[in-house]
Amino acid sequence: MLGGRLPKELRRILPIYVACVLFVLFFARANPYKSPLEASEVIKRVLAAYQTPLQSTRSAFPRKIWQTWKIDPLDFETRDSERARSWTSMNPGYRYEVLTDSNDLHYVETHFGPGPGGLNRPDIVNMYRSLNATIIKADLLRYLMMYIEGGVYADIDVEALKPVDQFIPSHIDEDDVDLVISVEIDEPTYANHTILGPKSQSFCQWTFMSKPRAPVLLRLVDHILGWLEGVAAKQQKPIGEIVLNFDEVITGTGPSAFTGLILAEMARQTGNIVTWDSFHALSDAKLVGNILVLTVESFAAGQGHSNSGNHDSPKALVKHHYHASLWPSRHPRYSHPAFGMVEECNWNRECVDTWDANKASFPSFPAEEQARLIAVHDEFLKEKSDKEAAERAAGERQEADRKQNEILEACAEQLRGFAKEQEASQQPAQPEPAQPEQPAQEPVQQTETQPPAETPQKQPSPEYQLHTDDEIRHTDPKS
Ligand SMILES: *[C@@H]1O[C@H](CO)[C@@H](O)[C@H](O)[C@H]1NC(C)=O
Ligand SMILES: *[C@@H]1O[C@H](CO)[C@@H](O)[C@H](O)[C@H]1NC(C)=O
Fold first, then answer.
1. What GO CC terms are in its UniProt record (predicted)?
2. How many CB atoms are located within 10 Å of the residue 228 CB?
């Protein structure tokens, strides 16, 4: 494939060159059944085929918002609906689509299978079909669908704070951009830390915007496929049975893989080595090649590290609630038996240094002291998990209460409406001493309600009244 960006001149010449080669081949073979007219048709098609993909990137970003989740949006729980609605309500000119656990495979088969319009990549389809690790599938799927159709991808727990048309600053031409990403973690002083190092500098891939066919996305997919095959070979297991820890997910398919391939793509496009230094302490959106990198505040404000500011900043475009992240519990990461996970320091220097020092000196502690520290930590973990379970239960109760209240409220609304109708139908029959001071309005009232003579006949039961509500409206001469 001619995936990489070609210099402008070469880009212009290439189709003609290819056409010439084919032209020569055509005559060299001297097929007697084909006329020269058909040959020129062939050349036209070849030219068209080469020009279409090259030009397709010089256009606007598709007006589409993508999410992926277990279930379709009509069945989302309230919290997810609200986040999803932040995207649709803020971007009324955009379409919205969710790929689910029920329709994802069909999507991948359609677009990457051998059928019409498919890219004929059986390796991708087979990998997607065999994979069992949800988080890896989710990572792969976002790259695949953005490669095919482009638009904005956002994880289910990401809330829109600003309309998508503010993603690209006004001084940058949308034509020059193929991909919009944001810094997430910018803590390069930890670059050599054994645990934090690999994730200390990264772009996020839980929200990004792409034009269709951005080559870096397919390269990312190829990288993941190769990596997964390597893991399966090492574990001597089929793809569906491989077991991954947290760091493997991060580095294999997640933010670290994404970041590494983005930097490589930038190097490919610009011809220079691009390192994290270019994005450290970024104060303004930066375009490298056709990749636009937004500041950490844009997508990842409020983290308490990486100088990420807060969500009130005018630069904050989205808010990540991090509640879909059940996957870390399924992919264990290093946790010291007495001091826990260094990630809990949230990149606080003092905390990390203490953790490092504790971990280093732990083996030299007397066995009793080690046992005591481990017991203290176990107690802490137990309290923490009890607290989390209680919070989850409270959340579920709240959601149940809310649903119940919704039903009760709807019921009450019905009853109020009914009471009003009842009142209205009884009014003319009642004596009217209360409004003697409004004689001018009386004729108006009479034309709007039924003639008083009719009402005594009609003393309907509540059910009857409800059912005839429509009939009354239908027989109303004004309608
Ligand atoms: C990490 O290690 C490399 C090689 O030893 C060194 O050049 C670099 O300065 C170190 N970086 C940090 C942030 O300590
Ligand atoms: C995939 O995961 C499910 C549930 O975790 C499990 O029951 C199934 O055996 C797994 N499949 C393979 C091939 O390991």
1. mannan polymerase complex
2. 21
Q: What band does 135 get if pLDDT is binned at 50, 70 and 90?
A: confident
Ramachandran region, residue 130 (left: φ > 0; alpha: ψ -120 to 50; beta: rest): alpha
Distance, CA 126 to ligand 2 centroid (Å)? 16
**242 neighbors 231 (Cβ within 8 angstroms):** yes
0.85 exceeded by pTM:
no
Asked if residue 26 lies in contact with residue 40, where contact means CB atoms within 8 angstroms, the answer is: no
Residue type, 470: D
**Structural domain 64-331, CATH architecture:** Alpha-Beta Complex (3.90)
Rounded to the nearest angstrom, the gap between the alpha carbon of residue 45 and the centroid of all alpha carbons in its chain is 37
Q: Tell me the two tokens of residue 120.
A: 């004929």
Q: Are strands 95-100 and 64-69 parallel, antiparallel or unpaired?
A: parallel
Burial class for 63, CB neighbours closer than 10 Å (0-12, 13-18, 19+): middle
- Ligand 1 centre to CA of 192 (Å) is 6
At 98 the three-state DSSP class reads strand
Q: Is the dihedral of CA 390, 392, 393, 395 positive or negative?
A: positive
From the list 270, 316, 293, the residue with the least C-alpha distance to 177 is: 293
**At residue 224, what is the residue type?**
I
Pocket of ligand 2 (CB under 6 A): 132, 240-241
Q: Of 179, 185, 113, 117, which Cα lies nearest the Cα of 146?
A: 179
Answer for the pair 248, 216: CB distance below 8 angstroms, yes or no. Answer: no
- B/e letters for 258-295, b = 16+ CB within 10 Å, e = fewer, are bbbbbbebbebbeeeebebeebeebeebebbbbbbbbb
Cα–Cα distance, 279 to 296 (Å, whole number): 10
* Cβ contacts of 213 within 8 Å, gap of 6 or more: 53, 56, 57, 147, 150
**Measured distance CA(248)–CA(228) in Å, rounded:** 10
Q: Which residue stretches of 30-69 are H helix? A: 36-56
Residue limits of CATH 3.90.550 in the chain: 64-331
pLDDT at 278: 96
CA distance 314 to 317: 8
Nearest alpha carbon, ligand 1 atom 7: 192
Q: Whose CA is nearest to atom 4 of ligand 1?
A: 192
β-bridge partners, 286: 293
- Ligand 2: nearest atom to the Cα of 132: 1
On whether the CB atoms of residues 338 and 370 are closer than 8 A, the answer is yes
> How far, in Å, is the centroid of ligand 1 from the Cα of 188?
10
pLDDT per position as a tens digit, 90-127: 999 999 999 999 999 999 999 999 999 999 999 999 99
